[in-house]
Specification:
This protein has about 270 residues and is mostly helical. The protein has a two-stranded antiparallel sheet. Strand 1 and strand 2 form a beta hairpin.
Length: about 270
């Protein structure tokens, strides 16, 4: 997940070098230096801040001291969905997440001049979604469901790195729903009359739901973890491209009146 930053940073810098040459006149989405600077900067601050606080300063890093957790302490809503750790399902969730993150590749069927815009928007989406969920994880200490089962089944790496206490919110669910929502929304905007809109949307969200199911069944998350992650990701996947549907060209009109000048500003 941390390697995401390198990809998104390179994609965004490349975008601002090439986009003015490849901009499409009738695109449903428009890049804007100010707006994209704010979105990208926010994503970098959030995701980069987490890298600093978590990996360098090790803020709120939890050390497992052998405590035995009681399922009765878990709220009634989350308790029925708890599971012990499953290595195979954990890895399956990683694989399905990677596949879900690749769904924006379907936008390759748009005009080539749109690819840079799509890459920039997707980079901003992932950076912001990732940064928000990581900052929440830093602030909230919640043991994962598998901590309520036999200690011999605990994944050693997670215990050693303190990840066992980073249950809320679900990072996999966040990124999966950010990708699925981004793909569904942008595909529908580019191809509003396409018969593939519903299959693409259904397929992307089915994969995202599959990621959620695997994170629950592998013992990595509670139901409230994945619901929170899906909400963060879904909002990020929609709001970032939606903000790019507004054309930020500014028209300034001057008019000479009897008692002075009139100035009007129009946003197109």
């Amino acid at each position: 997940m941390k390697k995401l930053l390198k990809f998104t940073l390179c994609s965004f810098l490349l975008t601002f070098l090439i986009q003015p040459i490849l901009s499409a006149e009738n695109s449903p989405f428009k890049l804007d230096p100010i707006k994209d600077g704010i979105l990208f900067g926010s994503g970098v601050l959030l995701s980069g801040g987490d890298l600093l606080l978590d990996n360098v300063l090790k803020v709120n890093r939890q050390e497992y001291k052998g405590k035995i957790y009681d399922k009765d302490d878990v709220n009634a809503f989350d308790r029925p969905f708890m599971n012990s750790y499953s290595h195979s399902r954990d890895k399956a969730a990683d694989f399905l997440l990677a596949a879900t993150m690749a769904t924006p590749g379907l936008l390759v069927f748009t005009d080539q001049s749109e690819w840079i815009t799509e890459a920039a928007m997707y980079a901003e989406t992932l950076l912001i979604a990732n940064g928000i969920k990581e900052m929440i994880k830093l602030a909230v200490t919640r043991p994962r469901p598998y901590m309520y089962y036999d200690p011999s089944t605990f994944p050693e790496d997670d215990i050693d790195e303190g990840d066992w206490a980073n249950s809320f919110p679900s990072g996999h669910s966040t990124i999966a729903f950010a990708s699925a929502t981004f793909t569904s929304y942008t595909f529908s905007k580019y191809f509003p009359e396409s018969k593939w809109r519903i299959p693409v949307t259904a397929g992307a969200y089915s994969m995202a739901i599959g990621v959620v199911a695997l994170r629950l069944s592998s013992g990595n998350h509670f139901m409230t973890d994945v619901l929170a992650g899906a909400t963060i990701g879904g909002l990020s996947g929609f709001l970032v491209p939606w903000l790019h549907t507004f054309n930020q060209k500014h028209d300034v009109n001057l008019a000479l009146l009897g008692n002075g000048f009139s100035v009007s500003l129009a946003l197109n």
